[in-house]
Write a structure and sequence with these properties.
Elements lengths: L11 H8 L9 E2 L11 E3 L2 E3 L32 E3 L8 E3 L2 E3 L22 H9 L5 H5 L11 E7 L8 E11 L16 E3 L6 E2 L1 E9 L3 E13 L7 E6 L18 E5 L15 E4 L2 E4 L4 E6 L4 E4 L19 E9 L7 E7 L8 E8 L3 E8 L6 E6 L9 E7 L10 E4 L2 E2 L1 E6 L13 E3 L11 E11 L4 H11 L4 E3 L3 E2 L2
Antiparallel strand pairs: 1-3, 2-3, 4-5, 5-6, 7-13, 7-30, 7-31, 8-12, 9-10, 9-13, 11-12, 14-29, 15-18, 16-17, 17-29, 18-28, 19-24, 19-29, 20-21, 20-28, 21-22, 22-23, 23-27, 24-25, 25-26
Length: 499
Amino acid sequence: MSGCRRSGISLLGLLATWACQCQPQPEIFPCNSTADCPNNMVCSNGLCREPFDAGIVVDSGHRPDAAGRDLPATDSWWPDAIALDSTDRDGAAAIDGAAVDAATPADRAGESDAPASDGSVDAAAGQDAAAGSDSGAADAAQPVHWWHRDWSWRQRLSFDNTALRESLIDFTVLVHLERSRFAFSHGLLDGSDLRFVASDDETVLDHEIEEWTMVGTDDGIAWIWVRVPRIEDDSSDSFIWLYHGNPSPDVPPAPSDAWSERFRAVYHLGGDSSDSTWHCNDGFDSSTSAASGKIGRGYDFNGVSSSIKVASNPTVDDLFSAATGDEAGGTLLAWVKPRSAGEGSYGRVFDKSGSNNMGGWELETTTMSDCGTAFSFERDYSVRAGDWCAQSALTSYDRWYFVAVVFREDDPLPPVPAFYVDGASATVVTEEAPSGNPLSDCGMDLCIGNRCGASDRTFDGVIDEVRIVKGMLGPDWLAAEFLSMSDAFVTYGPAEQRP
């Protein structure tokens, strides 16, 4: 479910505009009970009123009120319809037509019926609602905000960012669903009814389903990427909602919108080499084979002839150039599982170089005098290329490594890349310092798993989840990427059913 896609136009803005228009005021009639009132009105303090004018929150599901009438629908709703009857001056109330005790205003001084501004729900109340509990009349009358009436189930997904000192803005987090965390039988078999909603319980978030595999009708496994606007630093308070359980959902957000503009290419390698971003840097793969990846499936490179080639594109050309602000420099990320140092002991993970191996750059597994078996990064300059390695970072073969390189080619001079392995900074050794000016790689193809100029530097092993980013990602961001893709960043709350 990846590839180059374009966004659609949402109707939410049109609905919001309609909701803000002035509505006519209802006529008011005297009454002794709701049965005396016109259709779609309730009796409150001796007068027939529209439910919202009476301070009453009405279910959007077209359930009948206490008098058997069908009440109007709304899109974002409070589940329990509460009808106050003027004959019960002590504040007696009815919920779904059943009488319950209700606290007087004095009893409830200092309390609030509104949901928390961040969309959170009291844990005990949420558990009672999910279980259908009616224990405690006051608790039963408490409204629970629910994003949309057409979705029957939801879960709270919380993020553990307590160990990091950077707030993550526009961070695409991995959500991994399996039977112990998620009831697949509650939703559609292809996952098309999933919606992720921000903590305000209003804002729909962009997501991409990388893989959705069902086993029967009640078991499965899924890997989903969700773009979260903000995850607070040094905190475990940030969360989002996962809604599901709608038999006829509208069209979901475009999957490519799950990635911010700085992500110039994202390759899941789960069956093809398409780019999941809207930049459309799709690859052409040769002699690769499917393999079990770090996340879902990956690509196996045979150490002899395998490669993925991506045509030159301005969005990935001169990635490490010294632009200003967030555009300065670039970042490479990938999960790799090498079986050896690769063909000729120079197995390329990334390569962007010409036929004479001049003018570009490469990230590879290799053996070097100062680093031993290592990850190495090389960048070509006009006089002499720069060559650096991550010391003691590639300690053994046949295991997964999350490797990242952050580099800006002229700041400071001479520049030194930062290596991160499994989310932690690695010691960098300069094998050869660069000299002269950096050479442009504009017009050169980008390759994964081999050299572009000549297919003689084949990676030997499995590669998964490749990212090319414009801008220099920081240590905390990369640590969060590692935690997220290691399934150690998200806490999955219990399922809650719409009351």
